[in-house]
Task: structure prediction
Amino acid sequence: MTEKKPQILRDLILIGTLILLVGIAFILYYALKPKGELAIVAYDNQTLFKVNMESGETTLLTASYTTDEMPEIAGEKLMVKGEVFEQIKEGDGVLIYKDETNNKEFFFVKGNLGYVKIYYNKKTKKMRVVEETSPYNICSKQGESNDVPIVCLPNFITIKFTKNELDDVI
Result:
């Protein structure tokens, strides 16, 4: 009977050590995980635009429009200065609004169900879906990111982060 106690103690020490090692590995993985240098915004796997996360430089691969007033998503319509903005088609085109006072850049694209409002925060170097037309608004609940992809499945809009442009080719 006396041999069982040391065996149980050794087992507990082994289990505790394994849990500690897994915990340390988990913390190190997330602490040292590289952040994306390039954000790629796509509709149905077709790239609409790219944002360099360090410089904030945008590379547009579709028709682009700019406005000096914050657009508003009203149901299934995009309102700019009180008027309906119809130039953006589903999966084609982006409307850009630059908010210099808050150091943010807003992008409006049209997805499968309606418009999606995306912002790039120059201070934190992260992107986020702020507002979208979808039943449960799961996309906007995902929060800011610069490493984990943001997927707005009902609208076929994805934001993925890569180390460089070569990763997108593979």
The chain has two domains: 1-33, 36-169.
